[in-house]
Amino acid sequence: MIVTKTINAIKTSWKGLMLTFRHVFAIGKKRKSIDIRDDNYFAEAHGQVTVQYPKEQLPIPEVGRYQLHVEMDDCIGCDLCAKICPVDCIEIETIKATGAIGQTSDGTTKRLHVPKFDIDMAKCMYCGLCTVVCPTECITMTNEFDRSSTTLSEFTYKFSEMSPELAEEKRKELMEAKAAKATTKG
């Protein structure tokens, strides 16, 4: 029994060493970079496999899930993306407008100001659910995937362009409109 285990250990070690030597001698041969959609993508088994990033990059699949982007001109502040997010990485704050404030590119009327629309990409699991439920398709996934940082706070992307002063002004307008409506009813 000990002899059999020893023989198996020697065979396994020999196979591993042969694979290592094959890779060592293949370093001189460089594997050409081909498109991931190519039928022969996995067929090429000779040459160096390591991609010299960032000088070389593998092609990015078109249907990949990468960095999120929000087109704020199309956001109606419905909050569906934040509600469906399984990891709560989307934070939205809205202020009701006193009237219509514009239209999105698909013709939807905007009735909410969005002073805060933050996405914490450090929490994001890139599931894409937020892009599916968005009624105006303002939240999309881009081809960007290699944003790196040493500071965690840099992964929180702030998409809203509304300043805190303007947000406070809109809140006051809403309070005044509610007060005026309450006095006309009473």
What would you say this structure looks like, in words?
With 186 residues, the protein is α+β, with helices and mostly antiparallel strands. The protein contains four helices and seven strands, in the order αβαββββαββα. It has helices spanning 2-26, 80-84, 129-133, 164-185, and strands spanning 68-70, 90-96, 102-103, 109-110, 112-120, 139-141, 156-158. The strands form three sheets. Strands 2-5-7 form a three-stranded antiparallel beta sheet. The protein has a two-stranded antiparallel sheet with strand order 1-6. A two-stranded antiparallel sheet has the order 3-4. Strand 3 (102-103) and strand 4 form a beta hairpin. The model has no long low-confidence stretch (mean pLDDT 85).
Ends distance: 97 Å
Helix content: 25-40%
List how many beta strands DSSP finds.
7
Query: Hey, roughly how much beta strand do the residues contain?
Result: 15-25%
Q: How many individual helices?
A: 4
Query: Nearest-angstrom radius of gyration?
Result: 28 Å
Which descriptors would you attach to this protein?
186 residues, single chain, alpha+beta, 16% strand, three-stranded antiparallel sheet, two-stranded antiparallel sheet
